[in-house]
Structure formats: C-alpha cells, structure tokens
Amino acid sequence: MANHRFAPPKAKEPGTGLRAPVGRRKFLGYLVAAPTLVVAAEFTRQTVFDGPSASAAPIPSVPQTPEAYDLLDLLRDASRPTANLIRIEVNKDGTVSFALPRSDNGQGIVTSTQMIIAEEMGLEVDQVHVTLADARPELLFNQITGGSSTTFTTYTPIRVAAALAQMRLLDAAAQVLQQDVRTLTARSGLITGAAGRVLSYGDLTEAAASPVNEQVEVVLKPREDFRIIGKPHNKTDARDIVTGKKCFATDLQIPDALPTVICRAPDLNGTPDDVENIDEVRNMPGVTDVEVVSTGVAVRAKTFGQAIDGVRALRVQWNDGTVHGESDETILAKLKAAELPLAVPAGVGETVEHSFTFYFKSNSSLETNSAIADVRSDSAEIWGAMKNPVTAQAAIAKKLGLPQSAVTVHVTQGGGSFGRKLFWDAALEAAEVSQTMGKPVKLMWTRADDSRQGRVHPMATSRIRASVTKDSVLSYEQRHTSVSTDFTHGLGDAITATGARAPLGNLTFAESIFELTQVTPYDYGVSTRLLNEVEMGFNTSSMRNVYSPDVATARELVTDQLAAKVGQDPYEFRRQFLRNDRMRAVLDAVAKEGRWGRSMKDGTAQGIGFHTEYKGVSAALVEIDTRPDTVNRKIREGVTGPRVTRVTFAVEIGLVINPRGLEAQIMGGINDAIALILSSSLHLTDGHFVEASWDNYFYTRQWNTPPEMNIIILDSPGDEPGGAGEFGLAATCGAIACAYARATGKVPEYFPINHKDPFPFEPKPLVPPIPESPTDGLRYTY
Amino acid sequence: MPTHTFTLNGEKVTVDVEDDVRLLWVIRDMLGVTGPKYGCGINVCKACTCHINGKAFNPCSVPVGAIDEKDEITTIEGLAKGDELHPMQQAWIDRDVPQCGYCQPGQIMAAVAKVRQCQREGRDVDDEAIEEIRNICRCGTYNRIREAIKAGADNM
C-alpha cells in the first residue's frame, strides 16, 4: 500500500486536505521536463542520531568531534548543493532507471539502491535498473565513493525522487481512471483502481511526465510501512557473477583496445631513462607498439601474455625512485622523529605507556589497476573502476591537454577497491599511453606492479600514555604518526583536490579526516588524540579505512593494560568506562553470544574490542589459538601462524537497508583484520617493496579464516543508515591483538606480528619486473 | 604460426598463436571468453581456475602448446547446462556468496573440482577439504564460500 503519500490535487498546497501527512517532514523534489516521467531531488537537512547520552562513568571526557559531526556528515554536507541532480526515470516497459553516481566494487550499493527505490515506489527490486554514472563534473562534490558514505549520503535524495515519481504516477492513474487517487493501490509497478482495473507504471509514464521543470513537495514512506528495506536481499548481480557474465574493465571488448602492460622500474616510482632494445621488442611475436611513457615503457600486444613477454625482454636504464635507498628502518626512524609530544607528564597517578608500529600494507584488490583508453586528437574516452571519476576526468584532461568536457569517463564495475580505486592511476596511465601510441589500449597492471608500485596503507606509529589511579583513568593521550596518506583525491571534485595538493594542504586534510573519524569511546578523563603525518614520496591511500584499525588496535591493547592495572576484567572494565548505553549494548551482545570468560586452554585466549564510527557502534570478541601445533602447521607456500578460531561481532548502525549485505561487509572486514594483525604487510628494502604477489603478501586464506563466525546486527531506533563498508575492521583488529597478548602473555609492539620473521619465500627479481608465468600448471590438476 | 585446436565449453575452437602463450590469454584475449580472471599470472591466486577434462587447473600457467586436440576445457561460462545452473552456482546464489565477484568464477570452478575429488576419494567435503582450496577472495567472503561448498556438494 502506498496511499500514505497520495498527492492532493495539484493546485492545492501539499500537506492539506484529508491526506495531510500529520507531523511528517516534507522534502522538495523536482519534476524534470521530459517526454516520459523524470524526477530529481535535493537534500533537506535531517536529524541524524541523538547526541551522546550523559555518561555515568567516573571522569567524563569532553565531547569529541565525531560524536557531533563526523566524516559522514562532512561527505554528505559536501554533496548537499548539487544532489538535486540525482534523477530517476520511469521507462515505458514499467521499469525504472537510475544512474548511481558512485562506484560499486563489491560493497553491494547497486543492490541496496535498487531496494531503496523499489521500497519507495512500490516496485519489486528487479524492476529497478541501477547503473553506475559516468563522470559528471556538474555534481561537484557528489561523486566520490569513500569513507563508507554511499548509503548515508544518497539514501534521502534517492527516496525523495522515488516518492515523487510514485506520486506522479498515482496522479496520472487517477486521471486516466477518473477515480479518486485515494482509492488506488500500487504494488509491483502496477496501480489498481477501485473497479479492479490495472495500469502499469509503463502505461502511465508519458501521462505522468511534466512539460516543464517544477518543484514539488513530497513526503516519504514511513518506516513502519517498509516491506523491502531492512529485509535480507541477495546481491542482484549474483547470477551474472556465478555465470561469468559480470564485466570488469579488462573484460570489456572495445574495438582495437589491445592488451598493454608497462615495464616498471626496480625502485618505487623510478622513471625510465633509456631503452636499449626498443626495436627488438617491437618485433617480438604479437607486439604492436612499444613506447616510453612517464612511468615506464609501455608494450601493446595481441595478448597480455605477449605484452608481458615484451616487458620481460626490455632492457631499460632507470632513474632513481622517490624513496631510493630507504627501508622500513629508515622510514620508522623518521616517523619516530616526527611524533608529537605527550602533554601530561608521567607520574600523575600510575602511568601506562605503549608505543606500537604498523607497517606498510597493500590495498591491492584482486582486480589489478586497469583501464581502457581511446584518446583521439580532440577527445578521449576512458573506462575503469573509479571511485572518484570527476577528479580523474580533470587529471586526465590536464595530462592530455584537452578540455575536461572532451574527456568521457565511464565507471565500470570494480573487482574490489578497499580504497585503492579512490585514485585513477591506471586510467591516467592508459590515457597517456593511448595518446603516445595514437591507438586505443586496454592497460592492466600486473600483480607485481600492483603489489610493488601500487598504493599502500602508510606505515604509522601510535603512542599512548594513560595515567590511572585505583579506580579511574585520569588521562589518555594518543599520538598517531603516519607516513602521509594521500588525500589529493579531495572530496570527488577539482576544488578540494586542488586544496589538498597545496603546500600543507594534504596534512590539513588528513588532520581533518582524523579529527572527524577518531573517537576514544571510553571516559578516560583528559583525553586527546593527535595526528602528525610526514610526506615521504610513497603512493598511499586509505585501505578499508585510513586510521581506525591502527588507532583502535593501540587503544584496545592499552585498555586491556589499564584494566589489568586496576585489577578488572577487560570486558567489565570496558563496560564501566564506555561512554553510553548504546555502546554497552554491542559490548554486552558479544560478551553474551561469544561466551566471554569461558574456560580456555593454555595458549588460547579470548580478546574483546570496541569501536565507534560511521554513526554506529561495534564490538568484537575473538578467540585465538597460539599453540605450537597450530602456529606451525604446514601449508605449501602459505603462512599459517596463530589461528583466529572464533569471532563474534555485534554492530548497531542505524537503519540497515540490507542486513545480508551489511553482514557481508562485516565478514570481509573481519577477514581483513586477521590479515592486518597476524600475517600481511609489505617490507620496504633499498627503495622498493619486496612483495610481488599473493605468495609473498599473505592476505587471509581459507586456512586462516575463522571456522566460527557470528555477526549480530542489533536493532536500532535510528531512521537513517550509517556506513558499513569499513566497519568490520577496527573492533576486530583490537580484539585479535588483545587475544594474542592474553594467549602469549606478551603485548605485541608491531603489526602484523610476523613482520620481522624471516621471509617464508624467495623474493622475486626486480628486473625484469614481472615474474614469468609457470609452464607446469597441468601438474597441479585436481 | 602454429595452430591449436581444442574444445572450449563444448565447442571446437582453433587459434593461430605461438606455442608458449599461456592458455589464459588465448581464452580471454583471442577467444573473448572472459569468465576466468587474471589475478597473478603465476598460479597463486587461482582466479583463473577452469577445468581440463573435468579437473581443476590454472590456464595462466599452461602454454597453449601443451593442450591437446582431445582436451576439453571448461570455463565458468560452460558450467551450467543452458539456463540450468550447476548446483554449486545455485548454492553460491542461495548463500549470497559474491561481493565484487572477481574471484568467484575461479572459486566456483575450484569448489566443483574439490567436491568431485572428495567424491572420487571417498572423503567428506569438510572444513579440512575446503582449506585445501587456495583461491584468494580479497573481499574476504570465505565463510560464505565454505557454507556454499557444503550446500553445493549435497546436490552434486
């Protein structure tokens, strides 16, 4: 039933008459002049969540920024002025089309967007077509996919447009049927009149169309009437995926866009100086073009295999890279030197002080950086998975010497991102190569490129000093010091991206992101968190969050130490010091479901962690097994180590659109957390990263994943969605680190804990930069 | 240039290409069958897992010259019987396994082969058997993969 928002006759003021939506907030939508029904929407500020409740804990800390206004608010407010350009079209076949100005890399936002529109319009989910919009510079701030912000920022404007569309269709049906609009019902895209006559949205889209642009007030469906939102829904592209039909950038068949691979320097960001045998390589089988470009030497061939062979055959003289001669140790020394001082002197109460190091981590997704470019003399067309296509478009235009309007950027479905695709490295390179060769190219980074030269999560230290008396924490200071995180992607537009590139602009931006995202959720008296970042020439970006997993790991480990200091159980201590009941609810949920405190064998232990972000609260309880038989179990070319055997995770994050999708995101975050704490990092040696593939870089595998995982989604009174994509990590990282410390009796000082172990692999050569594909694959059939 | 003939998803195909080009690129770049994905090119990530004569293998590490005319190669595109999905594909949908989907064609082909192997050897499709599967899922949907393999196995 959709009659909650039946429109009054057009001449009347909305909200008058019998159908006045008592006490319901109204939003402004737009009818767009078109032959069929097209609607658009703009934002109206909504209440988000109640502020933090008063805390009963001993020494309340002053409110911290993210509790009142966080990164999600920033991303939404940045998108506010132009969000009215989001449009929904009603097609003649009764389906609805919407081009989502976001990038889906597996997080399920296409599915959740279909659900939102279907809910508001009285359609089935499969009647809504959602595609990813091309770069639309007129959207200014509103085309970035980051900070787990998509659903939070788009939920209301999409609903407004959808509600308006349905209102118009009902009005049109009332006119056609000559019946009072209040007697009509809408379901599955069909409007049924009093006498049982049925009209489809497709029948009505022309009649409902507006000849002029017009502003209209609309009310939204109340939550109690929801029949789709909040119910588990499978991903709508699942059938395409399991049959191999889902198309990623390198799967696209663009005429003459032949496979292209770049020969890269041994140093990170090294550049080509001279090529000794370019003509020889040009004559290799399948090779069509070899050209020097700014980042290396590009080889275009009939197949990727032949392009890789060409790269392997090149003999290139290289210029030094941006971190020539540097190593983990030299970078760590620079970070230590940049650590901001702790302000509270040691000696006030008892002091607990710890310093932790978090090594470089690769945010490589399974789909490597790749893009297709067809650059002509006066225009360019680009295809790639880009979370930030408007800024990419501007950068590409600048590189090519073309006006931005001459560059078309198509956003393709991405094979994972985790932050990597906030940047457009492959697209920019593909554009340059296509221009240099004068031909279309399908450019793909090899795995070795992606691992060694791709963006990384920066190395960081987190230093904490807390002072504690018998039963309270007087002060808590956390100083996070990081190799600078590249935020030059801005907020998805040229203006903030330019600002971030200005001198000190990136640090200001980084400090803002830190301030807008980091909360110490415990009442630890005088509590401060400060960030300093040092630019050192690395290619960085976020990786399923920027700071939180590291900041939380450090904070939760110290929290366990504080609990020990006052002789309290880690769960009871957290419970007492958490700032409000909403936080305590998720902590209690994992303690109960995960059976906190149950008897554990020697060498195994439980650990508990908490984190708040993205308008939500989360807690994790993990069990870890560090016994020698487990740690030393053998897997060919795999890292085993301690095994997380059980994870219980509770999350409360406002209105949940698709619980099944949220659970998937949390599950991925948990598996990421296992890798970050236990097994996966990059090692910087002599100006390059050692790791060149998945047999060097130990992301979680089946043999590392917990046999038992229980994800609990708590009901929320909130009527707006929070952010899900990155939320599974921080609490889990903290819990795993605490469990490991409790199982072994040693608080780790660096992460991942295996970072300083001898390499369980032979490093791959730097020259040639791509390892040869084996030829013995048929020996491993099963 | 050498000519290579084999059966791909039930159809005879012939390509003209050097012997040493790895089969993955022949399938993807020359024959336009893009279900098998590149993820490493060195037989580690397993994103390109296909079947050769019913067994799992990784075409990134097999030169096309090593393929015989009698060999039957099956990619994810050839797993279903027309519109009727293989039980493992159906289990993947039922359990809402995929996230980005990039690794999933390889995961499904590996799962089918692992179940067949267990059946041949009279083993249970349990956690231990599943942990022999090396395919990487960078989205981390491993736990749903486990559930789906067990469910799919029940219908195979």
Question: Can you walk me through this structure?
Answer:
- Chain B: It comes from Pseudonocardia halophobica.
- Chain A has 782 residues and is of the alpha+beta class.
- Chain A has three domains: 230 residues, Aldehyde Oxidoreductase, domain 4, CATH 3.30.365.10; 150 residues, Aldehyde Oxidoreductase, domain 4, CATH 3.30.365; 332 residues, 2-Layer Sandwich (Aldehyde Oxidoreductase, domain 4), CATH 3.30.365.10.
- Helix content of chain A is 29%, strand content 22%.
- Chain A has 20 helices and 31 strands.
- In chain A, helix 10 packs parallel to helix 11 and helix 15 crosses helix 20.
- The two termini of chain A are 54 Å apart.
- The N terminus of chain A is likely disordered.
- Chain B has 156 residues and is an alpha+beta fold.
- In chain B, strands 2-1-5-3-4 form a five-stranded mixed β-sheet, covered by helices on one side.
- Helix content of chain B is 33%, strand content 13%.
- The longest helix of chain B is centred in the last third of the chain and has 18 residues.
- In chain B, a hairpin with a 2-residue loop joins strand 3 and strand 4.
- The mean pLDDT of chain B is 97.
- Chain B is built from five helices and five strands; from the N terminus they run E-E-H-E-E-E-H-H-H-H.
- Chain B folds into two domains: 74 residues, Ubiquitin-like (UB roll) (Roll), CATH 3.10.20; 68 residues, DNA polymerase, domain 1.
- The interface between A and B is large, with 77 and 78 residues.
